Amino acid sequence: MKKAKIDEITLSYLRFQNPKENRGNIIVFFLIFLDIIGVIFLLGEPMIPLIFWSGIIPVILIHLWAIPIIIAPYNFERAYYLFFGVYGVINTFVYFLVIQKLIYNTFKVESIVPAFIGLVICVSLLIVLNWINIRSLYSGTYSRLQKGEKTLNLSPIAAASGIGYVLAQFILSSFFVESVKTLIIIGVFSLLTIATAFFSTSIHKYFFIKRNMEKVKQVYPEFGLPKKLRKNT
């Protein structure tokens, strides 16, 4: 039976790392972005119990989820993309909590206004970056970029959303924070949040793969197979 031709838009999205690289991503990003940068700030004194437990519970859950993917990255090759997207959401949320801790703990802010506005800004960033990812896919932008062709450049939109997020957090924090050092730290966390929020786009990729498994198998026949059943590992 003749295989159906795969359109260029689909092919542009079916570009995967090998499972070993997936495992490496988990270890590196967990260690640096989540544990060292995020969790250490949550654990630091003084501690706000509500902020700490709000962050540490999802962190523990995502670490538990990571164990089987690290142990058997070949078997969980498809699940990795859902996992990595959820990790991006959790890491983004942890950074949001760290920023709130800096505002509330260091400067004894009592109003819920900065937390509410900060959460709205954080969720908006996740939505915008996922929208950019989906638009880039279905407009053919990814396909044209991979071919090296000139294309509609969505980078100004992405840059604007990222810069807007940092400025929004910075301006919001400036109303409650007087320390320049703390404002700089908040600015750094805001920049890191853009990266972790972009990781959340992997959730869409997971569902795209799930809907197009036949096409995935055409391009990568060994996708999702255990290591022992693969010829090229």
What does it look like?
Helix content is 75%, strand content 0%. α3 (49-71) packs antiparallel against α4 (77-107), α4 (77-107) packs antiparallel against α5 (113-138) and α4 runs antiparallel to α8. The chain has helices at residues 8-13, 19-43, 49-71, 77-107, 113-138, 141-147, 155-174, 180-199, 202-211, 213-219. The chain has one domain (8-221). The chain has 233 residues and is an all-alpha fold. Residues 154-158 have low confidence and may be disordered. The longest helix is centred in the middle third of the chain and has 31 residues, at 77-107. The chain crosses the membrane at residues 24-44, 50-72, 79-99, 111-132, 152-177, 183-208.
How would you sum up the major sheet? none
> Can you tell me the residue ranges where pLDDT is under 50 for at least 5 consecutive residues?
154-158
**Based on DSSP secondary structure assignment, what is the total number of beta strands?**
0
Report the C-alpha radius of gyration, rounded: 20 Å
Q: What level of helicity do the residues show?
A: over 70%
Q: What is the overall shape?
A: globular
What is the multimeric organization of the chains shown? Answer: single chain
N to C succession of SSEs: HHHHHHHHHH
The class by helix and strand makeup works out as mainly alpha
Average pLDDT, to the nearest integer?
Answer: 85
Per DSSP, what share of the residues sits in E-state strands of 2 or more residues? under 5%
* Overall number of domains: 1
* Alpha plus pi helix count: 10
Q: How far is the first residue's CA from the last residue's CA?
A: 28 Å
